[in-house]
Amino acid sequence: MKHIIILGDGMADHAVERLGGKTPMQYAHTPYMDMLAREGKTGRLHTIPAGFMPGSEVANTAILGYDLNKVYEGRGPLEAASIGYEMAPEDMAIRCNIIEIEDGRIKNHHGGHLTTEQGDELIKALDAGLGNDRVKFITGIQYRHLLIIKGASKHIVCAPPHDHPNELWEPLLVKPEPGYDPTGDDSETGRMTPQQTADLINELIIKSQAILSSHPLNQQRHGKANSIWPWSGGYRPSMKTIMDLYPQVKSGDVISAVDLIRGIGHYAGLHNIIVDGATGLADTNYEGKAQAAIEALAKDDFVFLHLEASDEAGHDGDLELKIKTIEYLDSRIVKPVYEAVAAWDEPVCIAVLPDHPTPVEIRTHVDEPVPFLIWHKGIEPDGTQTFDEVACVQGSYGLLRLNEFMDEFMNY
After folding, report:
1. What does the pLDDT look like over 96-135, one tens digit per residue?
2. Integer Cα distance of 253 and 293 in angstroms
């Protein structure tokens, strides 16, 4: 049996008064996800291990069956892998957002939705002005870029910018990790101290603001991409492949517009499929991603198909757009994938789920269970009628944690 996971990033939410007390998933018109829930089995999944923040890098890695305590190194190394940067042992890679600051506050985490071309122009200006033998800025996608600091310490505390909309930026500057003892068993011989690392990154943030504010691109556009914001750094991770964890998988693929998901796929031994027009937003090439998934399943055993748009809508607090992204996922991804594989002789097992909730009314990730469904031909339904946060509470899987989802999924 072949397997595909369709993941709507941040799709889960809270009840919204404007929707009559329904969540966006309950309110949205999703006939295909509801049908799969009705004909399949459902449950809820806790995707965030104890002690970890509810980020997409954590949740997606856990969904794929990995023990975060053994493999987690932050977003930076995952995104480095995605864009083809091979980390040296002394490197610390850290995600580098380009954000918008207004009146001393973080206005948004995406610089007014930069295009990749605009982001590349700004990153090249930053590398020319601030890069050196120790510091290097590398272009990623849209507002999501990469900062490499040789000899830096990962033992720092950074504030993810999407978790702090409209907050003052200066109190959120990087700090050394409390209680970390660099002289202990895990001492980083030859590395900077956490305090030195924090000081360097904060200096880069402040200096970036002068470079970006005066850049011609920011004089030409409505949004002002006027500061970098580094966060979630780490060293090169050591991960087994999906094929090592689940021997029934001989080959697999990842399809995503997001660097960190591609990076997880790289270390998991999955082939990255790049789809033209995949943006990570509501204007992404849904049809292209669905077709790529169908073609990948025809030749390989496993596909991880990731859609980012609902998460971005949640971070922007855009309720109408979030509902639309959920409906797009249903009609433009789930429908064509289901209709294609349902006609095949070889059985395919489909799972649909979010990685974490991103409620539109608080605009950030929360550590709460998410609904999931599993369907394949011949599976015995459990009586769930719709696919949403409330209905799946009664699902036959109950409440699973972390790798338990992948273990169940791969049992079929």
Report:
1. 999 999 999 999 999 999 999 999 999 999 999 999 999 9
2. 8
